[in-house]
Each structure stands twice: as structure tokens, then as C-alpha cells.
Amino acid sequence: MATARKTRVAILISGRGSNMVALMEAAQDPAFPAEIVLVVSNRPEAAGLARAAEAGIPTQAIDHKAFADRAGFDAALDAALRGAEVDLVCLAGFMRILTTDFVASWAGRMLNIHPSLLPLFKGTYTHRQALDAGVRLHGCTVHFVVPELDAGPIVAQAAIPVRQDDDPDSLADRVIVQERRLYPAVLALVAGGRARLDGDRVVIADEAPDGVLFSL
């Protein structure tokens, strides 16, 4: 019996690639429905590139500073992804705002993880934003990417309680644990066809594991 073709995934990073490592480790399971075929960074010095190379995954550095504008960078990125026959893109600490044309060309095929319970606390410094707002729950969100920043259809979220003595660093430490758990689970759902876009919402075929809040 022929083995089902795995979804070919590229991971985009700008730094150490913490969530990238979680995705790579998950993909080592023969039953995982995706394979990581490329890691790309806009920063040649990004530590995550070496980590991916050590794992035997092809890497590419596309320095955004070498391009006159965002469109030029995005064209080079698009060419790299298409050259690797990528089906799905995962942003994992990728610190670039992509052009509308690039996002449109990968619509429904690009995921991002954000360290807040969207639509709360978009942008940066999310843990400080959560503390300043006095929320009792904080966490992370995996969503499909759309042109508006941190605004795409939500696939899944994981929440943690905010403690009385939390500061941004302690919150970040606990949220990243949930990120490393959530992102591989969502990639498995999307790559395996169990999560799909229905207009501006995501339909999930499975019930959520404990501690994970799926958008239904």
C-alpha cells in the first residue's frame, strides 16, 4: 500500500528558532503528516539556521538588507519556497512584515504563532501589554496569515493563568512552553487535513485536547 504524501513545510525564522525546533522534533515522528523541507531566515546570522542544518534540513539565508524594498525580498523568498515545492509555510519568530501580494499568493497556506490570546495584544511586547491590561488569562494563538498584522483566522489557542507576581519574563517563560506544544499540534491538524478554512473561520474535525482552545 502506498504511503500518503506528507505536506511539505518551510519554516521562516529570524532568530534562534525555538518554535522551529519544536516543529522539527514533531516531524521526526513517522506518523506526523508533515515534513520540514526548508528553513529560511532573513538574518544570515540567525542561530536557528545552524540548528536546522545540524538536523539535516536544507537552509537558506535571504538577507532582507540586500534588497531595495520589501517586494524584492518577498520575490526572492517566494522563489525559494516554490523552488523547494513547499505546500505550507510556518512563521516561527519571523520578524518581517510581508507584502500584501506575497500574503495573497500563500493565502490559506501560511501559519503564524503569536504570543497572546488574539485578538488581544497584537504586535510586540505582548506580555507587558497583558500585565498592563490586568487580564487573568494569557497565552498564545496559531492563526492563518492575512495582510493585516496578527489578524488572520484563528486555528487554536492555549491559555495560562496570569499570577499575581508575574512579570513579562515569567509570563514569557510559561507562554513559550505552550507555544512549543501548540504549534506542532496545529501543524498536524492543518497538514493532515483536519483543520480547514471556511471563509474567515477555521473548522476543526477533532475535539480539542485538554488545555487547548480551538476556534470552532
TrEMBL record:
InterPro entries: Formyl_transf_N, Formyl_transf_N_sf, GART
Domain Formyl transferase N-terminal residues, every copy: 8-187
Site positions for Raises pKa of active site His: D150
Pathway involvement of the protein, from the record: Purine metabolism; IMP biosynthesis via de novo pathway; N(2)-formyl-N(1)-(5-phospho-D-ribosyl)glycinamide from N(1)-(5-phospho-D-ribosyl)glycinamide (10-formyl THF route): step 1/1
Gene3D superfamilies documented for this protein: Formyl transferase, N-terminal domain
Coiled-coil parts of chain: none
Gene Ontology molecular functions: ligase activity; phosphoribosylglycinamide formyltransferase activity
CDD domains: FMT_core_GART
Protein name per UniProt: Phosphoribosylglycinamide formyltransferase
